[in-house]
From TrEMBL:
Catalysed reaction equations from the record: 8-oxo-GTP + H2O = 8-oxo-GMP + diphosphate + H(+); 8-oxo-dGTP + H2O = 8-oxo-dGMP + diphosphate + H(+)
Family stated for the protein in its record: Belongs to the Nudix hydrolase family.
Cofactor(s), by name: Mg(2+)
Protein name (Swiss-Prot/TrEMBL): 8-oxo-dGTP diphosphatase
One Pfam family this sequence matches: NUDIX_4
Annotated residues for binding of Mg(2+): 52, 72
InterPro entries in the record: Mutator_MutT, MutT-like, MutY_C, Nudix_hydrolase, NUDIX_hydrolase-like_dom_sf, NUDIX_hydrolase_dom
Length: 146
C-alpha cells in the first residue's frame, strides 16, 4: 500500500524545519563568563545560555548581536570579535550559532526580560546545564581561559 509520506520528506521534521541564524555574545571578565537563564517556555528552556538571539531578515550579524545584548542585558557593545560558529540540528530546528567574544562594553548587565543573569567561573561551566549546541563553546572557553 502506498505511503502518504513522500520520499525524502520526514513527518517529524519535514523539509520546512526552521533554520535559525543566532548571534551570541561571550562576555568574559577575570576568568568568569556572563550567562542568562532561558525561561521554561522557550526552546531549550530552563538551561543556561550565552546571551543573544535570532537575526532579523537582512540584518548583519554584528548589528543583531548589539541589538540582542541591548534588549536582553541593557549593555552597549563597544568592541567584539568573531569567536566561533556552531551548527547544530535539534529535532525540531537547526541553528547556526554565530558566537562573538565581547571585548568591551558599557553599562551594567541586568536581565531585561525577567531572566536570571549571572557570572560563572569558566572552570565551573561543566556543572551547568546548557543546550546541546553549546558543548563546543564551553570546551573552547575552558581550553582558552583556565
Ligand atoms: N541565545 C542563545 N541561543 C541559543 C544558545 N544555544 C542554543 O542552542 N541556542 C538556540 C536556542 C534557540 O533555538 C535559538 C535562539 O533563540 P532565542 O530564543 O534566544 O532568540 P531571541 O532572543 O531572538 O528570542 P525571541 O525574542 O524570539 O523570544 O538558539 C545560546 O547559548 N544562546
Ligand atoms: Mg535570546
Amino acid at each position: 500500500m502506498a505511503s502518504s509520506v513522500k520520499p525524502g520528506s520526514c513527518a517529524a521534521k519535514g523539509p520546512s524545519a526552521p533554520f535559525l541564524h543566532v548571534a551570541v555574545g561571550v562576555i568574559v571578565q577575570q576568568g568568569q563568563v556572563l550567562l542568562s537563564h532561558r525561561a521554561g517556555h522557550q526552546h531549550q528552556g530552563n538551561k543556561w545560555e550565552f546571551p543573544g538571539g535570532k537575526l532579523e531578515a537582512g540584518e548583519p550579524v554584528q548589528s543583531a548581536l548589539s541589538r540582542e545584548l541591548a534588549e536582553e542585558l541593557a549593555i552597549r557593545i563597544e568592541s567584539a570579535e568573531p569567536f566561533m560558529q556552531v551548527r547544530h540540528q535539534y529535532p525540531e530546528r537547526e541553528v547556526l550559532l554565530d558566537i562573538w567574544l565581547v571585548k568591551s562594553f558599557s553599562g551594567k548587565p541586568r536581565g531585561m526580560e525577567g531572566q536570571q543573569v549571572q557570572w560563572f567561573a569558566i572552570k565551573d561551566l561543566d556543572k551547568l546545564v546548557f543546550p546541546d549546541a553549546n558543548q563546543p563553546i564551553v570546551q573552547r572557553l575552558q581550553s582558552l581561559f583556565i
